[in-house]
């Protein structure tokens, strides 16, 4: 909680040094799948992970890595939507320590 408050007070982009990642990379795919599963468990939305459209990472203050991904997921009626998610974790650590910070639907243009 406190970390998010500090981040909110910084000017937009002040500390962010985002680096694009290969959306097909193994870790990125795992993180995207993790985000959809965690969100779905919490909200019972019936979402099924489809893939990662694009993503970027940033080293987190205090350790770990923040993944900002756009994931595609299918809804129970078969339609697909894209969601922006923010996941914090330490690469190669147990997924039980990872945190889903944000998951929101992106309006399709």
TrEMBL record:
GO terms for biological process: defense response. One of its GO terms (molecular function) is cysteine-type endopeptidase inhibitor activity. The keyword Signal applies. Residues 1-16 form the signal peptide. Residues 28-93 form the Cystatin domain. It holds the Pfam family SQAPI. It comes from the Eukaryota. Keywords: Plant defense, Protease inhibitor, Signal, Thiol protease inhibitor. Belongs to the cystatin family. Phytocystatin subfamily. This is Cystatin domain-containing protein. The lineage of its organism: Eukaryota, Viridiplantae, Streptophyta, Embryophyta, Tracheophyta.
């Amino acid at each position: 909680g406190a970390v998010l408050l500090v981040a909110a007070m910084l000017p937009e982009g002040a500390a962010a040094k985002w680096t694009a990642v290969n959306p097909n990379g193994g870790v990125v795919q795992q993180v995207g799948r993790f985000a959809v599963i965690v969100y779905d468990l919490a909200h019972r939305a019936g979402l099924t992970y489809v893939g990662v459209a694009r993503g970027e990472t940033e080293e987190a203050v205090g350790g770990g890595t923040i993944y900002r991904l756009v994931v595609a997921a299918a809804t129970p009626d078969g339609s697909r939507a894209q969601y922006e998610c923010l996941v914090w974790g330490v690469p190669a650590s147990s997924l039980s320590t990872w945190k889903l910070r944000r998951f929101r639907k992106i309006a399709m243009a």
